[in-house]
Specification:
This protein has about 725 residues and is α+β, with helices and mostly antiparallel strands. Helix content is about 15%, strand content about 30%. It binds zinc ion.
Length: about 725
């Protein structure tokens, strides 16, 4: 439920721009306001929490601050790096360095407090909050406080990218991602009241590029500890004078990024701002005349010359850490600090071995996206890159199967390799540090495709057994439930096919299919010298789980390569309602009747008819897809989409004909919708007969498999529909 809500929010709150200066620094208000709209009961919850905080803050905050409150609070952190092996895969050392830096502002040790304008020097607060990367994970295992998740969710990220969060009453979770998509925010976080409402999304999420930029993370941690923007949380920066519920931050409109004097000496909302405090001791009430300029250097403004929290903000953060809301008060307990190892020294742990296939490289060509498919003995290479982490790596050692040009290699960070034996390639990487070793073995690291053609025009594949697809590699790039698979339980003409499992069996709170993509590759075909029309035909049966326009995001793309996988060219594709030809269904879709299948024909231009032409089906699941089934993939001079039938007087077409491996019968249902198909051999004996009801005057097709016409020779095919018999010949060789 939250998933849809927040995605639509992402669109609404868009601020365009790519340069750092143009990014909206923080999206917390947008997320918070949207949550309030969708879950009005949150407002009541927030009000109760604010009343608790106000009661605790009733004492006047003098220039000395809350002099009696000198206790330090310690807080465990965990950093999640959600990455796809790009620049967002931040190094351990960069994270450790940044974490030290974030901590400074919470103990008033950041050096740039020296540049705070004199009027605000008396108000610089020391939150006395010490941040620590955890050294024990939720399972009780040692950690260095950084975990990594390889996922497409790093792109166009939102709350769903925060999967695998650690309990929010024990750790503050901070996720780093590559991008929030086109929407251009730098980071956002939730207040404790929102965190209590949806603990699995509680924490900070930020662009990896803002790891250590302009106090972005201290700002977001401010929100986690219940600080609002200095102009208030139902306002936008630069719009109207507002107030954040903190006395010593004067009212302000807030500012856009930039340390300009108009911001630093902005008096617009702050002139004459003072507060009267009722005496607690029966003596005279006192008035504090706060500065007449706004506190543009406040970490909760957007100026990026953010140098300070005020004393009032520090008191507010400390109250959040003593409140049970979202279990914040558990973070600082002695028991939790022991459980999370927050106060322990960072342990020396063995590395985590990891590698990825970077790009396929050839002379002058570097392919985009993940490339795990090349023909064996290809001039191009697979490029394997070490990505081991968790300790300073002293040595690495690679091993490769399949007649690799470099079967073993030590301490090379990048290995470009070619393979002389077709099939799946096993790659192992051993990473060693002073603290031990770790091995990563991937038995399907890449695929070296055989170049021997399995057929040409007339080829047909019905995926009858799993063995039929041994040379049809399926790539599940992100190792998740959304993937290609052989399926027995439905088929166009039999009980087997291949399918893309787009139906989401999870609760959809963690993760979303959107952004994933997966491939299945065909074997090589010999299409050299084929003239005239040529089609890659197949049948597909699809559905979605919802017919709303945002739900129709699933797509299937058909690509071709004549360079053994170095370069791919898109030939065609299907999406939306066209792909979901059976409409919508909230439960998992499995096709029933033969009429569930739609004929697909992709024209193969002459330029791609070589002795080694491969095709690739690339599926991109959306948020509300259901399964897509694909069957009877064939190469033919006639298209499976049978517009031609309706143009001509013929009521049916057989192709290929003559045929060696089955032929597709395309026909038009007549005025009564009833269609009877019968096939007789030359002796007149019926070898196949079928009668079914279809939508009247619509076009369908069915495969006459070779099993139905086992003996080579001539057959008589009769289609009876709308009160008419049409007869034709099928030649089987
Ligand atoms: Zn913010």
């Amino acid at each position: 439920m939250f998933r849809k809500v927040l995605l639509s929010l992402s669109v609404a709150a868009c601020v365009s721009g790519t340069a750092i200066a143009q990014l909206q620094p923080c999206w917390s208000d947008e997320h918070h306001n949207h949550l309030l709209k969708v879950h009005p009961q949150l407002a009541e919850y927030e009000q109760q929490f604010e009343e608790q905080v106000a009661a605790k803050l009733a004492a006047k905050l003098t220039e000395a601050g809350d002099a009696n409150d000198t206790v330090y609070y310690d807080v465990p952190l965990v950093v999640h790096v959600v990455h796809d092996y790009g620049v967002e895969n931040l190094s351990d050392d960069d994270i450790y360095e940044a974490a030290k830096n974030w901590a400074l502002a919470f103990v008033k040790k950041n050096a740039d407090t020296a540049t705070v304008l004199p009027a605000f020097v008396p108000y610089i607060g020391n939150a006395r909050i010490r941040l620590h990367l955890a050294t024990i994970d939720p399972n009780g295992n040692p950690t260095k406080g950084v975990v990594r998740h390889n996922s497409y969710l790093t792109f166009a990220a939102a709350d769903e990218a925060k999967y695998q969060s650690w309990p929010n009453n024990k750790y503050i979770n901070i996720w780093f991602i590559n991008s929030f998509g086109s929407s251009g925010a730098a980071a956002y976080a939730y207040y404790p009241s929102s965190g209590a409402f949806m603990p699995y999304y509680d924490g900070v999420i930020s662009l990896a590029s803002y790891l250590n930029t302009s106090k972005t993370i201290p700002h977001e941690l401010g929100h986690v500890l219940n600080l609002q923007h200095v102009w208030g949380n139902n306002n936008n920066a630069g719009v109207a004078c507002g107030n954040d519920g903190v006395d010593d931050t004067p009212p302000t409109k807030g500012h856009t990024p930039g340390c300009v004097s108009s911001a630093l000496f902005d008096t617009e909302c702050a002139v004459g701002y003072s507060k009267t405090y009722i005496s607690m001791s029966g003596l005279a009430d006192s008035v504090v005349d706060y500065p007449d300029t706004t506190n543009a250097q406040n970490i909760m403004d957007y100026t990026y010359c953010s140098n300070m929290f005020t004393k009032g903000q520090c008191a507010r953060m400390r109250k959040a850490l003593t409140s049970a809301t979202a279990g914040r008060n558990n973070l600082i307990t002695t028991a939790n600090l022991a459980q999370t190892g927050a106060l322990a020294e960072m342990p020396d742990l063995p590395p985590v071995a990891d590698f990825f296939v970077n790009k396929a490289v050839a002379v002058g060509i570097v392919t985009d996206l993940k490339t795990k498919f090349l023909t064996f003995n290809n001039d191009a290479s697979f490029s394997f890159k070490n990505a081991s982490w968790n300790d300073t790596i002293s040595s690495i050692h690679w091993e490769f199967s399949n007649g690799a040009s470099l079967p073993t290699s030590a301490s090379k960070g990048i290995v470009n390799n070619q393979f002389s034996v077709p099939g799946w390639v096993t790659v192992s990487l051993t990473a060693t540090s002073n603290a031990g070793s770790d091995v990563m073995i991937d038995p399907q690291a890449v695929y070296a495709a055989d170049t021997t053609p399995v057929g040409g025009v007339g080829y047909s594949q019905s995926f009858a057994s799993a063995g039929d697809i041994y040379n049809w590699p399926m790539m599940n790039y992100y190792h998740n439930q959304f993937r290609w698979q052989h399926f027995t339980g439905a088929g166009k003409d039999d009980n087997s096919c291949i399918r893309y499992r787009s139906f989401d069996t999870s609760d959809k709170i963690y993760g979303t299919a959107s952004g994933d993509y997966d491939d299945i590759f065909t074997p090589a075909f010999n299409l050299e010298g084929v003239s005239g029309d040529l089609y890659l035909n197949f049948f597909s049966a699809g559905m979605v789980t919802s017919l709303s326009s945002s739900a129709l995001r699933d797509s299937l793309e058909v690509d071709v390569t004549t360079s053994g996988g170095v370069r791919w060219v898109k030939l065609g594709g299907y999406r939306g309602t066209e792909l979901a030809n059976n409409g919508s269904k909230s439960s998992e879709f499995i096709p029933g009747a033969s009429s569930s299948w739609a004929a697909r024909a992709i024209s193969v231009p002459a330029a791609y008819r070589t002795r080694q032409t491969f095709f690739r089906l690339r599926y991109r699941p959306g948020d509300n897809g259901n399964n897509l089934y694909v069957d009877n993939l064939a190469l033919s001079s006639l298209p499976a989409d049978i517009q031609d039938i309706s143009k001509s007087n013929d009521q049916f077409v057989l192709y290929p004909n003559p045929a060696a491996n089955g032929s597709t019968l395309a026909f038009r249902a007549g005025n009564d919708g009833n269609v009877k198909i019968s096939i007789r051999d030359v002796s007149g004996r019926i070898v196949f007969e079928q009668s079914e009801n279809y939508v009247q005057n619509s076009i369908y097709s069915t495969l006459i498999s070779r099993e139905k016409t086992p003996v080579a020779g001539m057959y008589i095919v009769t289609v009876t529909t709308g009160g008419a018999n049409i007869t034709g010949k099928l030649l089987v060789y």
